[in-house]
Amino acid sequence: MKKILALVLALAMALSMTFAVAEDFDVEAYGATSTDLYNKILGDFYTAYQAGRSEVSNLSLRYALMAVAEAKLMEAAVYVPGTSNGGNYAIGRNAANTVTSVLWGNDSYRYHDMIIVNEDPVTSEQWDTMKAKWAELAGTGTYEQWVKDYLTGEGYTFNTEYALGYSSDPQTWDVLATSRAADSEAIVNTYDGLVEYDMENVMQPALATEWSVSEDSLTYTFKIREGVEWVDSQGRKVDDVTADDFVAGMNHMLDALGGLEYLVGSDGGCGIVNAQQYINGEISDFSLVGVKAIDEYTVQYTLEQPAPYFMTMLGYGVFAPMSREYFLSQGGGFGEEYTPDSETYLYGKDPDHIAYCGPYVVTNLTPENTIVFSANESYWNKDNINIKTITWKYNDGSDALKGYNDMKANVLASAGLNDSSLEVAKQDGWFDKYVRISATDATSFGTFMNINRTAFANVNDGAVASTQTAEEAERTNKAMQNVHFRRAIAMGYDRATYNAQSVGEELKYARVINSYTPGNFAQLTEDVTIAINGVDTTFPAGTFYGAVMQAQLDADQVAVKVWDATAEGGAGASFGFDGWYNPEAAMAELAIAIEELAAEGVVIDAEHPIYLDLPTYMASSIYVNRAQVIVSSIEESLGGLVKVNKTECQTSSEWYYAGYYTDFGYEANYDLYDVSGWGPDYGDPQTYLDTFLPDYAGYMVKCIGVY
């Protein structure tokens, strides 16, 4: 068992249910069951993944093998990709491309260089002009000044505050102890990393001023910027930034086990020497881990084997620095002395109990209301930031027009348009002048299928209780463990109509995605020959990751389309169409499932349908409407043989605690769940596929009810 299991307490599951549950939850037995199910359902994926991950010298071969692995993951239908960020109508006062558009890491949430205008929103024509100029100037270092000159010439002045909406408060302010986007997207503005991607997508020095890589590609050495200070939330100096802060940060991250420690381990990460052994509890001496302060301003990382993507990982939270002295002053400790549940442990509990070395300090936090980030007067690069204040304003989604109305009143800098606000914008006359279609990113939100459900109410408070009987729950579990049943569900719901509830009918396909890793995330740079079901198949240089994935799906005769070679003007894409929704294929898969399940004693017919629970946030008309699309399209596609129940969540917290806030698969209170998703941590497909690793190593496997 992983060290992480030491944190697990036996559950006293006194939940409001229609059948009994054992008071003591056997975690060890649960882990064994998880392993059996994983091997049965995702074994082919894992075998193919291992082949791809082991290839480190030939990137094109690596990408092709990983594409085969992802095809196996898609065929398993435990996760159905649905939507990305963006791809919606938007209006705003932000200039185009003034935060990085790199598809991985957290740098796209660093807003210090963003350019915001004071007046009316930028027009759609101006937006297109800026986008075209960015494509021309990217990599020259001149785009930022060009934008300022251009918008000044258009009559705009610049705002030093960026106000944006948010929907979930951070649960911790310790970036090294979390894997939740709602946490890291806020905290990233409070610290600097070693390097940072700029608005032209060029990696720039941040706390590292220079770096070198050994000839064997195993040792990375960074010189740390001198004179940088750590301050508290009041702006008072608490320490100097030194190389040891990166050692302390890595040590704390591996102690905290916040969910992303695998990124530096050998079970799916870059393989820092002995990091995996420390995670597993096989060693307790952190000095044996390959992160060293060579001197006061030199830090060195040593890997077990080459990781060609290592530099692309450095903008992510697992490599964040941490002041050792400040951490200890807040009750922190390392190794066996790390006791986060003690009364004296304060680090990261709120913004007043972290140290800052980034462009902002948090000066106001009112839960579910406002978070204010103010310029850090001690920031080493304070004279070169455009935004002096970032203000997050809470929106629980209950008012479909709030974002648009706040943007129009200049309370928010920008807003995406949903179906309701789109009509209002047209009536206002703002649509034709100001609207643009936002770019999609590399985030993949989708629907998870729980193959081993053990929770039938939220584990934190017993809310969102299921109405399934014990017999119904047992039948559902057996059905969800059948691949053809899962494929029937995956092919049975209309994802375009689902997306229309958020972005409007006109753009319902714009951000529909069909794979976990975007098909254009990686591209072969040389000819590669691999075996597709035993047949040697050559993919020429220039082939996209998605095309290889599609070849494997076609060879396995799975009626899913993840890559369209004709999309994007012939460049090809994995988004902009629904390659999963296929009622005819769904019924064909269901017919196979019915036959196989009958042999296990599970009868599925009109009198004995399978019941699935889908947690639904009832205070938001958008989310209710999206859930209803899942319900109606699945029930219609599958002839009423599957019934989907919207289990009602009265607050957003209930909705999140049904799945998003859970830490282990046995806490997942659903059969279907459409709240969570994943964005890349670094520039390699491994960043996606690692999340489905077994034995508590993969972050997303908990969403399918295992580990």
Question: Nutshell version of this structure?
Answer:
With 707 residues, the protein is α+β, with helices and mostly antiparallel strands. A hairpin with a 2-residue loop joins strand 20 (528-532) and strand 21. Helix 13 (483-492) packs antiparallel against helix 16 (583-598).
Number of strands: 25
> So what's the overall shape?
globular
Structural class comes to alpha+beta
Major beta sheet summary: 4 strands, antiparallel
Radius of gyration: 25 Å
- Percentage of residues in strands: 15-25%
Query: Averaged pLDDT, please?
Result: 94
Helix content: 25-40%
Contiguous runs where pLDDT drops below 50 for at least 5 residues? 1-22
Straight-line N-to-C gap: 11 Å
Structure description:
This protein has 19 helices and 25 strands. By secondary structure, it is α+β, with helices and mostly antiparallel strands. The termini are close together. The chain is globular and about 70 Å long. Helix content is 29%, strand content 16%. The strands form nine sheets. Strands 1, 19, 24 and 25 form a four-stranded antiparallel beta sheet that branches. Helix 1 (27-53) runs antiparallel to helix 2, helix 13 (483-492) runs antiparallel to helix 16 and helix 14 packs antiparallel against helix 17.
